[in-house]
């Protein structure tokens, strides 16, 4: 219903809108001039910009940015460059060599970088926390990597209902800044996850059963368009773009500020409870009951992870309560299952995300790869058995650790997705809770990449076939966990995909964010076609 109103609204304003955002005779040089950048004064651009190669284009782009912004631009082998390439979560992203790294500190510098990219044809990528795992997702091979790290403000509006958060923050810096005020936002569960990618793909928080996902709790976005304009985008201002940014990823602009609704900072209670194989069916039963009970008590958050370590199968339930209560009703069943260890304790939100960070170390080759199905106990048990039956296939891979993780997209989460005009994810609350399952796997050597990818792919082929034949398959793919072989936008459904493409055309008629920023999930297809 709401979607229909967005569609009709869009066609009503489309001509006017497109002209205002980027007229047909848009001139990049003049747009730069409006930002105070006179391209005739830039030595690298003095000889003109015709018929350049990509390499030359990027050399020109980086020299121009360095001329304009000095030490905010760094190139190969410098300390600034190495601190960028050396600080991603996955090794695959660390291996990427951009032509230069640009660290803007204000929104107009981001506009300038996008326009310089257009002028020179040099590609770019933007990075917030750098937690996307695959090559080129937030660093541009041979191009401009825009590191948003220095745009790290966290400020409150007068009545403290909205926190303005720069995309250079991670969730630890956001929660730490707000804690003295007794406040928090709907954000990530581990400290180093970036604000930037997390919100644009969805964002599952400890508070999501109470308030919804992170993308459903944004008062407004400040966005740099392909034409270098800086727009404030909310439910009232550019509502179609607001809808698109709630799940559409990096396809519509670079977000230079996230204005997030605040919530009271919680004193929490939780930790990991570890179980042996004999308890797995009971663990899955308890996990399902907690998902269904989200309608009764929204303070609980959980995921369960299963893995094989030194020949032993283990299950971990991360059980989090957003109040300082050690034994709430909703987790009683879990606590009655015998555990070999339990790290639960009272923690502030800041302490919680620091603790969870230690469970997810950086510095490995990594893949995250999700699918989704309708919540179903028999299927959950079957998929787990199938996982353990297939794990021996990668036993010889050096340093390998495959894990399967189960989470629930609960009814209250789904209902909150309809707030503020809805989001782009295409999830239907009327079908009941969704089982979000993903494989997370790390390993050591590049020479094993294909073996690992083929293993995960063959596992999911089997699971998807069974899900389809038993009627539980859900085409939704969570962008924030998706592998480079997947197409999350297609998983949002045909009508949402078509609408996202239409909105992208309105706000970015030359498709700059599709073509000059090719990394991560575009509107048309997976980043990489798998050859398994
Ligand atoms: C250890 C770990 C824990 C996690 N925990 C959770 C969790 O609790 N809940 C959950 O939902 N997900 C979780 N995730 C997944 C996480 O949400 C994604 O990895 C997400 O993409 C991370 O955002 P980032 O800013 O750090 O990533 P980046 O790699 O910096 O960005 C990801 C993509 O978003 C784009 N982007 C970033 N900033 C902007 C911007 N300002 N404007 C436009 N585009 C931008 C980038 O260009 C890139 O394409 C976790 C991941 C890891 C590795
Ligand atoms: C853009 O404007 C500048 C001067 O303002 C002009 O020299 C240039 O030719 C224009 N570019 C295009 C593509 O029209
Ligand atoms: C960076 O330094 C290494 C080692 O000193 C050198 O081999 C390499 O050529 C340098 N790369 C560039 C682009 O300067
Ligand atoms: C949490 O609850 C426990 C038990 O009731 C109490 O001892 C402790 O002081 C509480 N912690 C905080 C920070 O409120
Ligand atoms: C949760 O679910 C179980 C099983 O359906 C039920 O027995 C229990 O009372 C529920 N309520 C709460 C608050 O957890």
From TrEMBL:
Pfam families: FAD_binding_4. The keyword Thylakoid does not apply. One of its GO terms (molecular function) is FAD binding. Gene3D superfamilies: 3.30.465.10. Residues 1-18 form the signal peptide. Keywords: FAD, Flavoprotein, Oxidoreductase, Signal. Residues 94-265 form the FAD-binding PCMH-type domain. The keyword RNA-binding does not apply. Belongs to the oxygen-dependent FAD-linked oxidoreductase family. PANTHER family: BINDING OXIDOREDUCTASE, PUTATIVE (AFU_ORTHOLOGUE AFUA_1G17690)-RELATED, FAD BINDING DOMAIN PROTEIN (AFU_ORTHOLOGUE AFUA_3G02770). This is FAD-binding PCMH-type domain-containing protein.
């Amino acid at each position: 219903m709401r979607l229909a109103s967005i569609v009709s609204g869009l066609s009503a304003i489309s001509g006017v809108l497109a002209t205002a955002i980027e007229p047909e005779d848009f001139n990049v040089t003049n747009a730069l001039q409006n930002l105070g950048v006179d391209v005739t004064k830039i030595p690298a651009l003095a000889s003109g910009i015709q018929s350049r190669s990509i390499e030359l284009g990027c050399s020109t782009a980086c020299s121009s940015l360095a001329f304009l912004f000095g030490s905010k631009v760094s190139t190969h082998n410098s300390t600034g460059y190495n601190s960028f390439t050396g600080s991603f979560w996955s090794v695959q992203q660390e291996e990427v060599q951009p032509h230069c790294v640009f660290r803007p500190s204000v929104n107009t510098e981001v506009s300038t970088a996008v326009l310089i990219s257009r002028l020179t044809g040099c590609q770019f990528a933007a990075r917030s926390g750098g937690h996307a795992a695959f090559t080129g997702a937030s660093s541009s091979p041979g191009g401009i990597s825009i590191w948003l790290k220095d745009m790290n403000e966290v400020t409150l509006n007068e009545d403290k209902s909205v926190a303005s958060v720069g995309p250079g923050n991670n969730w630890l810096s956001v929660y730490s800044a707000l804690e003295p005020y007794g406040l928090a936002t709907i954000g990530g569960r581990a400290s180093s996850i970036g604000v930037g990618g997390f919100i644009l793909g969805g964002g599952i928080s400890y508070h999501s059963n109470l308030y919804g996902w992170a993308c459903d709790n944004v008062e407004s976005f400040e966005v740099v368009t392909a034409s270098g304009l800086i727009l404030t985008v909310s439910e009232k201002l550019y509502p179609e773009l607001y809808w698109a940014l709630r799940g559409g990823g990096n396809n519509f602009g670079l977000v230079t500020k996230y204005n997030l609704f605040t919530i009271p900072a919680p004193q929490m209670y939780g930790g990991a409870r570890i179980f042996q194989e004999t308890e797995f069916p009971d663990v899955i039963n308890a996990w399902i009951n907690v998902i269904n009970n989200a309608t009764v008590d929204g303070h609980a958050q959980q995921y369960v992870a299963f893995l094989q370590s030194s020949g032993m199968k283990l299950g971990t339930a991360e059980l989090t309560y957003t109040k300082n209560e050690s034994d709430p009703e909703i987790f009683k069943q879990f606590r009655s299952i015998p555990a070999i260890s339990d790290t639960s304790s009272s923690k502030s939100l800041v302490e919680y995300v620091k603790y969870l960070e230690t469970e997810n170390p950086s510095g490995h080759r990594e893949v995250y790869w999700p699918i989704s199905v309708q919540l179903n106990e028999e299927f959950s048990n079957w998929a787990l058995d199938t996982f353990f039956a297939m794990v021996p296939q990668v036993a010889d891979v050096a340093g390998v650790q495959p894990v399967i993780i189960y989470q629930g997209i609960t009814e209250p989460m789904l209902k909150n997705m309809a707030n503020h005009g809805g989001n782009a994810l295409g999830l239907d609350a009327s079908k009941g809770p969704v089982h979000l399952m993903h494989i997370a796997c790390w390993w050591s050597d590049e020479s094993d990449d294909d073996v690992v990818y083929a293993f995960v792919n063959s596992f999911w082929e089997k699971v998807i076939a069974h899900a389809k034949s038993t009627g539980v398959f859900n085409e939704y793919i969570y962008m924030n966990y998706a592998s480079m072989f997947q197409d999350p936008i297609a998983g949002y459904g045909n009508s949402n995909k078509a609408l996202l493409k239409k909105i992208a055309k309105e706000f970015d008629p030359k498709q700059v964010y599709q073509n000059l920023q090719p990394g991560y999930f575009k509107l048309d297809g997976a980043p990489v076609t798998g050859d398994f």
